[in-house]
Design brief:
This protein has 347 residues and is α/β, with parallel strands linked by helices. It has 14 helices and 13 strands. The strands form 4 sheets. Strands 6-5-4-7-11-8-12 form a 7-stranded mixed beta sheet, with helices on both faces. Strands 1-2 form a two-stranded antiparallel sheet.
Length: 347
C-alpha cells in the first residue's frame, strides 16, 4: 500500500481498479455507486485517496439547473447533453485575413507520425508550421522522416517526461513569440492499457485533421470570437464524472490560476489532449510556470500524474481567459457542443 500527501493530510492509495474495472457498469453508474459508498460510509473511506478525490470533484458538478429543465434529467440519467455557444461573430476583416496555424506534434511512435503527416499534407493548408517534440532517442529517426516532406518545421529533442504535455508547455513560448495565434495540439497517442486505443486515436485525429476537417475547424475560430478551444466531437467529458485520480491536482491548478469555485461548476474538458486552441486560452496556464520537477518520471502510470491533471486543466485555463469550449461538430449554423457522459473509449 502506498501513501500520498494531499490537501488535508496523508491518504492511502489502493488499487481500486483491480475490482472496479470488472464491475459490469458503465462509468457514470460506477461513479454513482462510488458516491453512495463514500457518502453513506465516510468513516470507512476517509483515509482513502480515491475518496479525497471524490470530495474534491464535487466542486466541478453543475447543480444550477432546476427540475423543470430537461437537461436536469439528462444529467440525472447520465444521457449526453448539448450546450449552446453564445454567438460573437468576428468582423469581416478578421474572417478574411486567415489564421497562421502552429501544429504541435509530440512524436513517440514514428509510424503514427507518418500517418499524421499524410493527413496534414492532404489538407492543403499552406500557412501551417510544424513544431515537433520527440525524445532524444528518436530525434534522428524523426528528422529523417521530415527530410522527405515539404513542411516548414522546427524539431526539438526532449526528455521522456510529462508525456506529450510537458513538451507542449515548453515549446509554446517559442510558438507565441513567432506570432502564431492558433495552435493545434496533436500527438502519436497509443494507450496500450486500453483495448480500443487505436480506434480512440483515429477518432481523435480524423475529427481534427481528417478529410476537410482542418480548414473547417479553423473557420470556427474565424466565425466566433468567444471560442477558445475546439476538441474532437464525442470527447468532451464532464470533470464531475471523469476526474479519476486527478481532482485534487486539477483543483490546485485552478487555484494557481486564481479561478473561483463558482467558475468551475459544470466544468468540461477534452479527453485525449488533442485540440485546437487560441493563444489567449492557454496563457493563464503558462503563467503559473510549472517546472519539470512537478511532472513525475515516466513509469507507465495509468492515471493520477501531473500530465493527467493538465489534460483537464487546459479547459480551466480557457475559462480563466473568458473563452468557451466547442467541439468539431460546431459550425456557423450550429453553435453548440455535446457533452459525452458515457465515453466508450475510457470505460
Amino acid at each position: 500500500m502506498q501513501k500520498v500527501s494531499k490537501p488535508g493530510g496523508e491518504y492511502n492509495i489502493y488499487d481500486f481498479n483491480k475490482v472496479w474495472r470488472f464491475l459490469p457498469l458503465n462509468r457514470p453508474r460506477k461513479e454513482l455507486l462510488k458516491g453512495f459508498l463514500f457518502a453513506v460510509f465516510p468513516f470507512l473511506f476517509r483515509k482513502w485517496a480515491i475518496c479525497q478525490n471524490w470530495k474534491n470533484s464535487r466542486v466541478f458538478r453543475d447543480n444550477g439547473k432546476n427540475v423543470f429543465c430537461p437537461d436536469f434529467w439528462r444529467h440525472r440519467f447520465f444521457l449526453p447533453y448539448k450546450l449552446h455557444i453564445p454567438k460573437n461573430t468576428a468582423s469581416k476583416e478578421q474572417s478574411e485575413s486567415g489564421i497562421s496555424l502552429a501544429v504541435v506534434i509530440h512524436v513517440f511512435y514514428p509510424d503514427i507520425f507518418r500517418e499524421i503527416l499524410l493527413l496534414l499534407k492532404s489538407s492543403g493548408n499552406k500557412k501551417m508550421m510544424l513544431f515537433i517534440t520527440t525524445p532524444h532517442a528518436l530525434y534522428n529517426e524523426v528528422k529523417e522522416i521530415l527530410t522527405y516532406e515539404t513542411f516548414r518545421y522546427h524539431i526539438e529533442p526532449v526528455e521522456n517526461r510529462g508525456r506529450d504535455i510537458l513538451p507542449f508547455l515548453k515549446i509554446l513560448p517559442r510558438i507565441f513569440d513567432e506570432g502564431y495565434q492558433l495552435v493545434l495540439k496533436i500527438h502519436t497517442k497509443n494507450s496500450e492499457h486500453l483495448l480500443r486505443s487505436n480506434s480512440w486515436r483515429q477518432d481523435l485525429i480524423m475529427k481534427l485533421i481528417g478529410d476537410d476537417q482542418l480548414s473547417k475547424n479553423i473557420q470556427v475560430f474565424q466565425q466566433n470570437r468567444n471560442i477558445g478551444i475546439v476538441g474532437p466531437a464525442g470527447h468532451i467529458l464532464p470533470m464531475s464524472l471523469y476526474y479519476g485520480a486527478n481532482a485534487s491536482t486539477v483543483k490546485w491548478l485552478c487555484n494557481k490560476m486564481e479561478l473561483q469555485d463558482n467558475q468551475l461548476h459544470g466544468f468540461h474538458f477534452v479527453a485525449g489532449s488533442m485540440f485546437f486552441a487560441l493563444k489567449e486560452a492557454l496563457q493563464p496556464l503558462l503563467k503559473i510556470s510549472l517546472t519539470d520537477k512537478e511532472f513525475e518520471p515516466e513509469e507507465n502510470q495509468l492515471d493520477g500524474t501531473m500530465a493527467h491533471a493538465m489534460e483537464r486543466a487546459f479547459s480551466a485555463s480557457m475559462i480563466k481567459a473568458g473563452l468557451i469550449l466547442a467541439d468539431t461538430s460546431c459550425s456557423s449554423e450550429n453553435g453548440s457542443y455535446v457533452v459525452n457522459v458515457n465515453h466508450s473509449f475510457t470505460i
